[in-house]
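Task: sequence design from structure.
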């Protein structure tokens, strides 16, 4: 029996929406990341969510802008309108920009604070439709818990947890393991050649990144994005839920010269986070006419391990 997962390409990566498929994909190899969690996608619990007042007001603002959350989830209205909204922001100037961009930092909202929570009977709603609103706390000196007065409200915008796969993870599951089918915005299944062309158009370094990703996955590592440590990938021996990453991977692209100041900075970050730096280079094959992705096996990878050795001065007394 072969399990085929279903993913939807949204322009940034591939999202898996089925709860069972999300859990199985993550548990079988730590693939992807939950959209509203740090790593592993969280299972929905039959209890009301708890959120700050400012976050609830922002969601009410989203509800007025984009309408019912169920419709927006089915058609992915928000993602489809990103380019249109970005173009409008650039053309409308500073005044219009302040209107259309939702402030995610400010705790103040004008006029809508007391109109969003109406009195209702809890029996009329499911627990998943309710949310507990707690006051904002911007000061460390406030006696927060002494004056805590939570309110129970209806959550009109429910953000569905999804598993986001990077382009490299998606193509590895499609091409390397053959257990993923990728659909576009029109629900048409994309074959391997179409996905390869699409991913290369979106990322000019996709070939090098995928070769490196496939290389380390084949060696048994769990490969995750390394952007928070300034690298291309992080390598785990067992997975993020078991231990920390062992290596930060930096890809040296063709024609790129070494920036030693940047490398010293990476070494400093790696030493303070108990990791090592791997500089990898993708070796082009000697074959003249390549048919990609069929001839990906012709590529090879050279890796160099860097370490920052601190000399220890031993002062022996000379008699």
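Answer:
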């Amino acid at each position: 029996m072969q399990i085929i997962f279903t993913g939807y390409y949204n322009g940034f990566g591939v999202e898996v929406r089925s709860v069972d498929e999300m859990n199985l994909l993550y548990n079988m190899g730590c693939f992807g990341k939950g959209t509203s969690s740090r790593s592993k996608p969280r299972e929905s619990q039959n209890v009301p969510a708890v959120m700050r007042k400012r976050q609830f007001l922002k969601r009410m603002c989203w509800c007025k802008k984009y309408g019912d959350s169920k419709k927006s989830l089915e058609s992915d209205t928000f993602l489809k309108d990103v380019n249109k909204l970005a173009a409008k922001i650039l053309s409308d100037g500073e005044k219009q920009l302040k209107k259309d961009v939702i402030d995610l930092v400010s705790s103040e909202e004008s006029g809508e604070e007391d109109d969003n929570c109406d009195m209702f009977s809890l029996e009329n709603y499911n627990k998943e439709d309710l949310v507990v609103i707690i006051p904002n706390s911007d000061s460390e000196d406030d006696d927060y818990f002494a004056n805590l007065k939570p309110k129970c409200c209806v959550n009109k915008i429910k953000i569905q947890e999804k598993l986001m796969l990077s382009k490299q993870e998606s193509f590895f599951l499609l091409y390397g393991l053959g257990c993923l089918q990728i659909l576009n915005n029109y629900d048409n299944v994309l074959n391997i050649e179409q996905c390869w062309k699409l991913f290369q158009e979106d990322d000019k370094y996709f070939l090098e990144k995928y070769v490196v990703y496939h290389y380390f996955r084949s060696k048994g590592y769990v490969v995750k994005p390394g952007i928070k440590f300034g690298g291309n990938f992080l390598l785990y021996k067992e997975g993020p839920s078991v231990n920390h990453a062992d290596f930060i991977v930096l890809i040296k692209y063709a024609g790129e010269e070494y920036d030693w100041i940047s490398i010293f900075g990476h070494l400093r970050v790696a030493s303070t986070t108990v990791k090592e730096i791997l500089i990898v280079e993708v070796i082009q094959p000697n074959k003249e006419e390549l048919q990609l992705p069929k001839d990906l096996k012709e590529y090879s990878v050279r890796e160099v391990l860097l370490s920052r050795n601190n000399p220890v001065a031993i002062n022996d007394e000379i008699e």
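Residues 71-75, 99-115, 311-319 have pLDDT under 50 and may be disordered.
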